[in-house]
Amino acid sequence: MIEGSGMSRQALLELYIEGRVVRALDIVQEFGFNVPVVMFFSASDVDGDGYINIEMRTTHPDREPNPTVSAIYVFDPDDTPGSD
Question: Does the model's pTM come out above 0.90?
Answer without folding.
Answer: no
